[in-house]
Model the fold of this input.
Amino acid sequence: MPDTLPDLAVRKSLTVEAPCAHAFTVFTTGFDSWWPRAHHIGKADLLAAVIEPRAGGRWFEKGIDGSECEWGKVLVYEPPSRVVLSWHLNGEWQYDPDPAHASEVDVRFTPDGPSRTKVEFVHRHIERAVGAEQLRAGVDSEGGWNGLLAMFAAKAKETAA
Done:
């Protein structure tokens, strides 16, 4: 058995047609404006997806019935350049409260001129999760971060005008 776990990180890089501060805001406090309603883990339909704007804040969903389901925590909140979120979902898309099983979503925003932003996205430590291979396959798919980041970029562009 190998001494180290395989690196299952998902890495994406994209350019967003919006100023850096705006892109950061749309990704974080504007998270609910672009997150698809079908992407939820709670029993109730999704009312809102929330990233609380501070280190130590929660990353969670609110259901239309008033319920809340945790997704993780805000580990780093450095506007307008970086946000890091712990991801506590496993390969079955269920919440796993054990921090030893959590992966991390690290998003960095760098100005690329006055009205464009380079976004470097890494979903790392997936190998810690129960069902890691299944989780990686899901987050590295069109229905995963590929499509989600495209939705984010479109919303940032649309609202930057």
User: Anything to note?
Assistant: The radius of gyration is 15 Å. The chain has four helices and seven strands. The chain has one domain: 10-160.
